[in-house]
Amino acid sequence: MTDEEKIIKEEWASGEWEAKVKAGENVDDAPADEKLTKDLLDAEQRQKEEDAALSEEELQKRDIPLPQPTLITLAAGLASQAMTSMGAFPNPLTGKHTMLLNQASHLVDTIDLLYEKTQGNRTSEESKTLENILHELRMIYLAAEKEAEKRKNEKEKSKAKS
Asked: What span, in angstroms and rounded, lies between the C-alpha atoms of 46 and 140?
């Protein structure tokens, strides 16, 4: 593990990000959260209506075979969700890039939990892949946190001008 990776892991483990969130330094304000929740519920409703209009045969065509479950596929799925929560990918229900940093943090912590709890039971490939996933997610999280702070400051400046 490089010095940079150690520092990132220590900062992550120290919970500094948690203190920032509690101090109100998170980007998501209540109106935005309420709008996102409404958008998600609307998208879910549209999907249910579309699915209801499909025949049983058409629905069965969507039931494609999935890969064998592995530790890497589990971590990759969680990482994909974390990336979406950090705004790196569009939300599949809304099509919008949204930052939900509390959710992203929880997902990264879940992958870290998998890493810690599977210690001694992983192959070297699984260990290296999990370490890389965690490193990349933590770096992206820090960038997302900076972007969120930037957006918050811009929003406050525009309010002050009004």
From this structure: 31
